[in-house]
Amino acid sequence: MNRVKVLQAWLWCVSLWSCWLSHAIPLDCKDETGSLIQCTSISQEKLLDRVIQHAELIYRVSEESCTLFEDMFVPYPLHALRNQGGTVWHTKPFPIPGSKTEIQQISDKWLLHSVLMLVQSWMEPLIYLQTTLNRYDDAPDALLNKTKWVSDKLLSLEQGVVVLIRKMLDEGILTPSVFEHTLTPYDEPSPEVLESILRDYNLLICFKKDAHKMETFLKLLKCRQSNKLSCLSY
Amino acid sequence: MAYSLSLGLLYLGLLCGNGLVSARSELFTPDPSRGPHFTGCRSREQETFRCWWSAGIFQNLTEPGALRVFYQTKNFLSEWQECPDYTRTVKNECYFNKTFTQIWTSYCIQLRSVRENITYDEACFTVENIVHPDPPIGLNWTLLNVSRSGLHFDVLVRWAPPPSADVQMGWMSLVYQVQYRVRNNSHWEMLDLESGTQQSIYGLHTDKEYEVRVRCKMSAFDNFGEFSDSIIVHVAKIPSKESTFPTTLVLIFGVIGVVILLVLLIFSQQQRLMVIFLPPIPAPKIKGIDPELLKNGKLDQLNSLLSSQDMYKPDFYHEDPWVEFIQLDLDDPAEKNESSDTQHLLGVSRSGSSHVLNFKSDDDSGRASCYDPEISNPEDLASLLPGHSGRGDNHPLVSRSSSSIPDLGVQQTSEIEETPIQTQPAVPSWVNMDFYAQVSDFTPAGGVVLSPGQLNSSPVKKKGEGNEKKIQYQLLSDGAYTSENTARLLSADVPPSPGPEQGYQAFPTQAVEGNLWNGEYLVSANDSQTPCLVPEAPPAPILPPVSDYTVVQEVDAQHSLLLNPSSSQPAICPHSPNKHLPVIPTMPMGYLTPDLLGNLTP
Fold first, then answer.
1. How far apart are CA B47 and CA B292, in angstroms?
2. Does B95 share its domain with B143?
3. Can you state the angle between helices B396-423 and B460-476, rounded to 10 degrees?
4. What is the ipTM of this complex?
5. Considering only CB atoms, which chain B residues are within 8 Å of A180?
6. Is B99 contained in some domain?
7. Which residues form the Fibronectin type-III domain (chain B) (predicted)?
8. Residue A74 scores a pLDDT above 60
């Protein structure tokens, strides 16, 4: 219990710190030489497009990683797990609606915040996933590279979303979202056991689902920006 | 802990479950061997979905209501709820409308028989995993370009996303796949996934009909929707006349130009081509004889040429030894028949060979050859020897006349060698052959009758003299004949021959037909000459000179030949009345000089 509390406190501090950082320090723009220059402004539409591109890429890579892992480690009868969308392994602070009608009723603010929340919630698990995958004996390099890449891209996605929020919502302050992550204890190796395999498999499935959410939200947001009428639920 | 527990439960549930709806939902294939089971679930636009089941072998459960579907959304771990809508029109279908459809949530459905409270089948899935989008609509094509050869073309195929899929909102991100094939072919060509709504197809063949169709699926998912209706793509081959027209023209002009060139070439090089293609057949040719001579009709030259051939010489030698170099100089009536007589004489020789008289074929003709036997004879005598054959290509005529002077020295030596041949009567080839003939009698018509003579016993000196005379002959005459002066000169040098001069006397003939001779004849200055033979040789011990023949100047009434009419002596024919040409040793050379004649006359 102490340990858990310590971890929670640490996580709180980390999230606070990250929020403070993102809020207090403006985004530094660096040119090729590395010197700090004033960030070149970018239009909101362009930024949104870039963010959507990021989300799409992440979503596609997540799907590929899931397939790779599935082909490599997961026994065939358990491939149906993928179809089932995995089990929720961590609770969300707020439920995300699943139906289209409900999603269409979500406000822009809420959409952006949801995306941000999702991005932030997946940063750590992906790092964890990298470590666990490295422990596998015959993990394909493509899988490792993809997970690494996704982790990096998540960071940039988060940056983009933060800027979007600032621009679209004119919110300077970001309320930090605290998640209670049930972090997997590191002192439980057992990489090749089926349980760990399933765990990792589930993680990948869930990540793919959440990436899809991110993409959907961002696209809806874009649709709303360009053409409000058709995107609204009828 | 809780997480791992839930995971384990799920795993167990999966293992225990009877039916599984796989991610790649195969459906609509009810398995009759099984009990009631789900045949599949599908969503078209990710907003609603349907599920179907089958009673299977349990036919008693086919009536509606016997089997019921319950579902549960795993998100909230809620209780099982029954199917919100059993489709009335379609049998065994459960329809979930928008309200009941949630993405990113797992659904589990169960097929239960409520009466028996038996769960026959269960399946879990998420809606986005069962989405099979509708086929795209509005498929059409436009021609991009046609290859230069007219055999290939490219098209751009366009379509629109299915209207049911809300692509604009981003609810569904679709990717498309275009397939095409040659019509009535069984194999479809598949192109790469395309996220846009158009695609180019390259490398299609003209005059072939192609079928093109397209289908779509959600990106990052595996379920393709149905194919759209196929469209026919066809481009007719355009017979590009314009492109072929100039090529044919160029071809025609090129051919015409080549033909003209060939014709010009042939006409310009006609001669050469004729030689190349039709080489002239070599006409029969005799060496040394110019066909032009034959045409011009200069028989003299021809005869000399012909006589220069070695092949004729043996014939001459063998056949008519004495008929040679007889030159008639018959005046008056004799002259009339001269030709005939000459020809008669010559005809005798000709009987043997036509070239008999041209034995030596020198420009000195018969006289030179007889006069200088040591020069000419050695070669000829050598040829007469049995061991000798034709002398090859030696042309005594040409060679001797031209180079007799320098060759003299050589020939002298050869003469010495050959003299024994001449003097020795034992020479077989010589036995029956005489170079000269003794005139034995005269015909009333003035013809000369010849008789075989005897060999000269002393031809040595004569030969030597003959050489000189030959030289002199060469110098003073053009070789064909000796003038009177020359004859005198020579006769002066020559001592009277010891023996009776006989045989070889030259009768100058004036009008020797050029047909037979080569123009080589001895011409005497005097015209009228009576044939008068001076048979006997002067008794003087000194051998007569080398002169081969004597100029007969006139013939006296006694039918004796006057060799030198200048002398007061009448015709020196002492012997003639007396001897009637007795056996007179043949003198191969020498002639009677006036002095000799004087001696001879009794």
1. 122
2. no
3. 160
4. 0.76
5. none
6. yes
7. 135-238
8. yes
Phi, psi angles (nearest 5°) of residue A217: -65, -45
Tell me which of B109, B130, B151 is where a domain ends: B130
What values do phi and psi take at A114, rounded to 5? -60, -45
For residue A93, tell me if it sits in a domain: no
- Residue B504's identity, in one-letter code, is Y
Given B130, B153, B183, the domain boundary residue is B130
Do A84 and B125 count as a contact with CB atoms less than 8 A apart? yes
Domain assignment of residue B79, given as a range: 37-130
Q: What is the CATH number of the domain that holds B161?
A: 2.60.40.10
Instruction: Please tell me the total count of domains within chain B.
Output: 2
Minimal Cβ distance to B20: which of A63, A80, A208? A80
Q: Which residue of B has its CA nearest to A223?
A: B169
Q: Is B601 part of any domain? A: no
Q: Does A156 touch chain B (CB under 8 A)?
A: no
Within a domain: A88:
no
Give a yes or no: residue A31 inside a domain.
no
First to last CA, chain A: 50
Residue B283 CB coordination number (10 Å): 6
B96 occurs within a structural domain: yes
Contact A88 B22 (CB under 8 A): no
Phi and psi at A92, nearest 5°, equal -100, 150
Which run of H or E residues covers position B140?
strand B137-146
Question: Which pTM does this prediction carry?
Answer: 0.52
pLDDT digits (tens, 9 = 90+) for B474-529: 444 444 444 455 445 545 444 444 444 444 444 444 444 434 444 344 444 444 44
Decide if B220 and A223 are in contact by the 8 Å CB cutoff.
Answer: no
Residue A87: which of B154, B161, B10, B597 has the closest Cα?
B10
Q: Any chain B CB within 8 A of the CB of A80?
A: yes
Residue B4, pLDDT score? 56
**Nearest by CB: B168 against A59, A63, A223:** A223
Q: Do B207 and B155 belong together in one domain?
A: yes
Of B446, B451, B452, the closest CA to residue B559 belongs to B446
The CATH number of residue A131's host domain is: 1.20.1250.10
Strand order in the sheet with B137-146: B137-146, B152-160, B198-205
Domain count, chain A: 1
Q: How far apart are CA B402 and CA A133, in angstroms?
A: 124
Does B186 lie in the same domain as B146?
Answer: yes
Within-domain flag for A203: yes
Q: Which residue has the tokens 């995995």?
A: A86
Per-position b or e across B226-253, b if 16+ CB within 10 A of its CB: eebebbebebeeeeeeeeeeeeeeeeee
- Domain coverage including residue A147: 50-83+99-226
